[in-house]
Amino acid sequence: MNTLITLGLLLAAGPLAPLEVQEPASSIHWFADYDAGMEAARKSGKPVVLEFSGSDW
Q1: Percentage helix, strand, coil, to 5, in the chain?
Q2: What total of structural domains would you count in the chain?
Q3: What residues make up the domain containing 43?
Q4: Of 44, 13, 9, whose CA–CA distance to 29 is shortest?
């Protein structure tokens, strides 16, 4: 019975735990140069997000 209660508490508390620790926004380095950004992403193994904004492109 104690095992069942413990399991129930763990399942109930699971969604309260953060899934992943994120870097503070101030530590994110933005690249304006596509090739430099892609190279940095390749070296660090991180995904790339491209943002197209404005009407001048």
Answers
A1: 50, 0, 50
A2: 1
A3: 29-57
A4: 44
